[in-house]
Amino acid sequence: MSLNAFITEETIDGADEGPLAGRTVAVKDNISTEGVRTTCGSEMLEEYVPPYDATVVERLKEAGATVVGKTNMDEFGMGTTTETSAFGPTKNPVDESRVPGGSSGGSAAAVADGQADLALGTDTGGSIRCPAAFCGVVGIKPTYGLVSRYGLVAYANSLEQIGPIAPTVEGAAELLDVLAGPDKRDATTREVERESSYADAADGDVDGLSIGVPTELLDGADDGVLDAFWDVVADLESQGATYHEVNLPSVEHAVQAYYVIAMSEASSNLARFDGVRYGVSGGYEGNWNESFARSREEGFGAEVKRRVLLGTYALSAGYHDKYYAKAQDAREWIKRDFDDAFSEADVLASPTMPVPPFELGESLDDPLQMYLADANTVPVNLANLPAVSVPAGDVDGLPVGLQLVGPKFGEATIVRAASAAE
Amino acid sequence: MTAQALEQRDLTVVIGLEVHVQLETATKIFCGCSTEAADDEEPNTRTCPVCLGLPGALPVLNEAAVEAAVKIGKALDADVAEETRFHRKNYYYPDLPKNFQITQYDAPICSDGTLEIAVEGDRRDVGIQRAHLEEDPGSLQHEGGGIDTADYTLVNYNRAGTPLMEIVTAPDFRGPAEVRQFLAKLEEVLEYLGVFDSTRDGSLRVDANISLVPSEEARADGTIPTDALEAANRTEVKNISSHKGAEKALAYEVTRQKNAVERGRGVEQETRHWDESRGITVSMRSKEEEKDYRYFREADLPPLQVADWKERVPIPELPDARRERFREEYGLDAEAASKLTSTKEVADFFEDVAAEFDPDLAATWVADNLLGELNYRGMEITDVSGRLDEFKRLVELVAAGDITVKNAEEVVLREMLDEGDDPDTVIEREGLGKAAAGEVEGAVEEAIEENPEAVEDYHEGEEGALNYLVGQVMGKTGGSADPGTVNQLLRERLE
Amino acid sequence: MSETPVDAEEVRHVADLARVDLDESELEEFAAQFADILDYFDALDEVPEVESETDLVNVMRPDEVREGLTQEEALRNAPETEDGYFKGPRVS
Model pTM? Predict the structure, then answer.
């Protein structure tokens, strides 16, 4: 395909019957599929074939879905544009000179282009919501602990979740119904009481809904993006919702806290890639330290090396308190701010991304600039909350997304609000 | 402290231990793989995505490991933390599937316990600073030479993920013999708890930290101030796997260090490897110098709040207490009490027998006879604990005089063990039943009639002649008469 | 410019800790980038200390044996094996 949405195209059949019977699903390539190559967009795992299925893949099969392939992504989930993939970038189907967003760019592009009915993405700091916004589709990042991570190749294990990407809110919600639920193999999941399915919550009824708009998340956004944002808010108002401004002073530090925590965890989660049990071998010259260092030099791309090194630095003796411990404090502070905001709002709304999709190649020179683009999405991961990105118009034909954040395990509320905004 | 200055002072040996014990759970600490190795097990046949460290795998904690940890804390009189959690210890080594070990750092499950040992008759408490849970790495084979000269390494992850308890003592030891005593005691307690098996290869691993501190730095109560300890150079000795090995390794180290000081060379702060086969410690300077483990919380494992388990979790009467009670309650001497508490299973077996018979008889039969025969056959008490009733039947027969002690010991018990039969079956088969009273008397009459010379010798005062006659009677009854009774009957008849 | 000095030496030290071989040009490039990034992270100094709340606790599984991988499955992705073992580099 000219979009390069897939790294591996292969059909995996599911059960004959089930809620997803007859639907095709694209699975992001950091989710383990038994017998089918799972590369995480990296040379390190170019030939890695897992001997087991991720829990979410088992659930897809049980639900009757047909998996059509493994989608392209930023290497190990580290990126916002899918350009750090070792298998080449994916193009945005809406405008092929633009990025599809990242790190789940392949999944969002596949759905937007009709190459799959549905897709699975993963979201550590916005990696489902960003590509959903850039490609004009719906993406949900569930509350941490709602969906099993067993089989998801870890990048930042205290932040990430697997979630659905679909053309409509109802479609995304239906997929979420299949994925959600506790798993004995993931100790961070839990049972959540629900009155009805998430799909049923997509009824568009926002009469009386109270929307909080965090002013900090509007700063720095493009005018075009803001216009589109306020248009959709007005539309929700016309359907019976109300909005008010809220302040989340802690989110000023969200990007720093996010990156320090994510990079620190990444430096540990990626330590296992040393070429002995799987991956690129570092050969047998010298001792294990030298061999491992060669394996990783060869197998990892620049962004991955950067984050692994910075994460190692942030955890190392002498810097741990300054960076890692402080980042955890910031995280707690952010959680409290959100809790306070939800005492007076049902959902919080903001643009998903502050800008329309970048041009391919535009963002690669300055890593720091890229990190800043995540300002609206990362606070949600830090606070372990659910959020959805739903299409909210465009800027000169380029898609813009509306982000709706809910309270913990409040997926039904954000699905409802998003269905009204569609 | 200069080497010379050190040389001139009186030195005290200070030792602290980090003991790793493998816990006897059915499965590994974070996954459902069995902890039991089959004989001649093939490498990498007891793994799963979790213990192999495959991308995407996640740990889930084994509740039996937590229970074992709480039992150990309770037995060591330690505090069980209100909240305890796991951390990652990050370092690179081929035996570590994830290149980090899930362990505990600043919130260990147990802390501040003690274990009492007897040093030259004095009872002393060894401080247990902390005890925590962690996972075992895999095993390495060094190809093409020993650990320093191999070309490559073969790795087997069957052992990876086995639950370990790391028990850290205060630097309370003052010599190698005390260390051996402590370790033997610790093993005994852990076996009593049912959480440890000393016969399992690799179930015990000890790292010892040893320093020579100027004796004048010690306080009156024998403790060493922290700064004095930190000022002294400390050697870490690794690769000790038994309590006897610990004594040998440390004795070697003490001598080596004292010699170094005497020759004005001083002792280096380093890690040394105990080579059991050569009986020496070898410097491991080539091992990773800096130890920046970059500890941080393991987010995949929620914390534990199990302090209330300490109350609820049952632990058996511990060996020391049981020995005391055996001496008081059953009037046993120290040696007997010790033999009968050598393992919890032996003690349980004995008490069951002692509940129905005279304790002395029970003690003789269990400690001397049964354990002796088991030992000779390379068997354990657990091999016969299912046959407790049969054993008690044997003791019953002896107590009632229905069978001679000699026959019981030399024939019946042995055949019970060798053939697997119950005592009554053996007795019938061998014709060892109590001879009918008439039969004995008849044999006595016959013996007297058939041996007039012996009778005459007896009447002339030769006791030996009576023994001869007893032997004759025994022969006639196939050994089933009681010699004491025969002796009695003969005397009466010959009056 | 950046207040946090990060030179190539420091990057090399961290690269050692992380077991990533870097060539000269990567060392230089990373040193420059790190300085800016770490500078940005310095803003965390302003964050107050906040106690974390414990959420989920006591998640454990029963001590029951579960089926695992066969030897073939375990070794399948290894670059090199020998007689059922993973072949790794020497350890000293």
Answer: 0.89
